[in-house]
Design brief:
2 domains, mainly alpha, Tetracycline Repressor, domain 2, single chain, disordered N terminus, Arc Repressor Mutant, subunit A
């Protein structure tokens, strides 16, 4: 699906005059993030301007800068909003301890693979890779997401070590290996323009998790 052109951006209604309420501020911030995301994905990070975001969102530059004092701050908010959405609903399930470690890690990996099919995820990933050398904040945003994933997996491994009475000397190191393995497969698919075929992805994931858990004694 092609990225929306400027003329296709959603027309944003002007906010009524007067001091905004808390709900209005939340809606405004969400609108700015939504519009900013469309423009970043269409123009790239370097070519996007705060003026363009303000114009498309139909707000003053002062209003935009009050909520997001810089382009970097706006981009970080967009990245964080995506991570929050990916962390809700089914995404919260990998931390459940009701099943085995292998099943739990499999669910986490499945979330990664399904995220790779998300248009927003693909656009954001390509944006980071293409321009992170010129704009270090893009790399920092990716590192923040990576570290959050490692922290989540570390906690899963630590809790299952206690639950299963199987000691783990370095759960963070194990988590980092797993995160790099799954993430590497996802980004390979994105950068090579080779979309996942669900059935093939499932077989790969099942094998990867099985092999990873088989080395549990060495963690």
């Amino acid at each position: 699906m092609p990225v929306k052109k400027q003329t296709d951006l959603e027309i944003q209604p002007r906010r009524p005059r007067g001091r905004p309420k808390a709900q209005d501020l939340a809606e405004l911030e969400g609108r700015l993030i939504s519009v900013g995301r469309q423009i970043f994905f269409r123009e790239g990070y370097g070519a996007t301007t705060m003026d363009a975001v303000a114009t498309a969102a139909r707000v003053s530059k002062g209003t935009l800068y009050t909520r997001f004092p810089s382009k970097e701050a706006l981009f970080r908010a967009i990245a964080q909003e995506q991570m929050t959405r990916w962390g809700e609903g089914d995404s919260a399930q990998p931390l459940a301890l009701s099943e085995t470690l292998q099943v739990t890690l499999g669910r986490y990996g499945d979330l990664w693979l399904r995220a790779a099919l998300s248009e927003d995820f693909v656009h954001m990933s390509r944006l980071r890779f293409s321009e992170s050398a010129r704009f270090p904040e893009l790399g920092e945003a990716y590192q923040m997401a990576f570290d959050q994933g490692v922290d989540a997996i570390t906690e899963v491994i630590r809790r299952f070590a206690e639950k299963d009475a199987i000691p783990c000397n370095d759960p963070q190191a194990a988590a980092r290996v797993f995160q790099l393995t799954i993430g590497g497969r996802v980004y390979n698919a994105i950068l090579s323009n080779a979309p996942f075929k669900p059935a093939v992805a499932k077989v790969w994931l099942d094998n990867t998790v099985r092999i990873f858990v088989a080395g549990r004694a060495a963690w």
